[in-house]
Every structure is written in structure tokens, then in C-alpha cells.
UniProtKB/TrEMBL annotation:
Name of the protein in its database record: HAD-IA family hydrolase
Domain of life of the native organism: Bacteria
An example Gene Ontology biological process: DNA repair
Annotated keywords: Hydrolase
Species this chain originates from: Paenibacillus lutrae
Keyword Nucleotide-binding among record annotations: no
An annotated Gene Ontology molecular function: phosphoglycolate phosphatase activity
Length: 213
């Protein structure tokens, strides 16, 4: 792996032990979209996440007001789930080791408001150079939009100078499509490959990330 100068982190269940009820969020978003009659028959909702359901709706051309309602639903679940969120094991120690040596970025599908609240409450916000929420993206992960936003900010750094780490296939898909090497956290390489994502490595504990820097 080339010399790493920057690291992009997913937030939920990568750095933070999220309490967001993702199944409940997805179910509410699905019910809302179902009422808009946006799904062809058959539609395999099982293989979707909240973000891919929202992107499906965007592709179908939903109105600005409907999109705003989807964002309101997501934000409601995010803000509730961030109450009392704790850190993943080893997150603080890892960030203390990395801070000042690498450009550190948070890249989350959450609203920036929810992300900032959680990161400040857990005391790790000051470690990051940039915190990117969905407001800075043209489309949610698995779109590479957020990664491209960061690339524009750091135009002097090549893509090979970055790595990203996350726990979900949507993190890996977005990273790979942006040309950024992806490390899977908490999920094995075989799990990711089944979803069309090919990480350069997989780690079970955050401290293992240091082996790839």
C-alpha cells in the first residue's frame, strides 16, 4: 500500500457504538415511499438500506418536499439514536495515535448536526480536520459523492494517499468507486465480496488499522 497521508472514517459502528435503530428508520422510510407508489413489482426491500431506498426515490424523481420529508425521518432517528452513544473499543486510543500525523475525516450519511452532536458528546470531534455529513453530498453512500467532495477539498493529495474504513458494504462501495482503498471493520472480506465490495484488508479491532499505515 502507498504511503498513507489521510484517513476517512465512517462514523456509526466504526468509531461510535451507534444506538440508531436502523431497521426502524428503514421501515419508516419504506412505508413513506410505498405510499408514493415508487416501487416496481417485485421490489426486494431486504437488500436495501435506508440510504439506497432514498437514492431509489431520487432516481424516480421525487419532489423536493418528499425528499425533505425523507431527510426529516432520517434525522429524527439519528438524533434519538445519538443520545448517549459511546465509542467503539479502541477508538479514542487510535485517534490519539493518528492525530497530527494524518488528515482525519469523518464521512457519514447522517446529518452533520447529528454527527457533530455525537462527536462532541464523545469528546472526539477535535481529532478531525473535516466532518462531512449528508448535506455535503450530492447523493448518499454507496454513492462516491462524499469521497469526491473530500478529494476536491484536498486536491493536492492523490487518491492513493488515502484509505477509508467502515463497517458497511455501502462504505466500501462508495470508497472503491472513488478510487480510495477500503478497509473493512468488523466484517470479513468474504462478507464484503458477497456484496460486490473488495477491501484491501479487514480488521476486527481498530488498533489493527495501524498495521496498514
Amino acid at each position: 500500500m502507498n504511503e498513507v497521508k489521510g484517513i476517512m472514517f465512517d462514523m456509526d459502528n466504526t468509531l461510535l457504538q451507534s444506538k440508531i435503530d436502523f431497521p426502524a428508520m428503514k421501515a419508516e422510510i419504506y412505508r413513506y415511499l410505498l405510499a408514493l407508489d415508487l416501487f416496481e413489482d417485485p421490489f426486494n426491500v431486504v437488500d436495501h438500506t435506508s440510504s439506497t431506498l432514498i437514492e431509489h426515490a431520487r432516481q424516480k424523481g421525487i419532489s423536493d418536499s418528499s425528499y425533505a420529508e425523507l431527510m426529516r425521518i432520517a434525522a429524527k432517528h439519528e438524533l434519538t439514536g445519538m443520545e448517549g452513544a459511546g465509542l467503539e473499543n479502541g477508538a479514542l486510543e487510535l485517534l490519539q495515535e493518528l492525530h497530527g500525523r494524518y488528515v482525519l475525516v469523518i464521512l457519514t450519511n447522517n446529518s452533520r448536526e447529528a454527527a457533530l452532536k455525537a462527536l462532541h458528546n464523545t469528546g472526539i470531534a477535535p481529532f478531525f480536520d473535516v466532518i462531512i455529513g449528508r448535506e455535503q453530498m450530492k447523493a448518499l453512500k454507496p454513492s462516491p459523492s462524499g469521497f469526491e467532495y473530500v478529494m476536491d477539498m484536498y486536491s493536492g493529495m492523490t487518491r492513493s494517499a488515502w484509505i477509508s474504513i467502515g463497517d458497511s458494504w455501502i462504505d466500501g462501495k462508495a470508497s472503491s468507486d472513488a478510487g480510495i482503498p477500503f478497509i473493512s471493520y468488523g466484517k470479513g472480506i468474504s462478507f464484503m465480496k458477497e456484496r460486490g465490495v473488495y477491501p484491501v484488508a479487514a480488521v476486527e479491532h481498530l488498533s489493527e488499522l495501524l498495521d496498514y499505515l
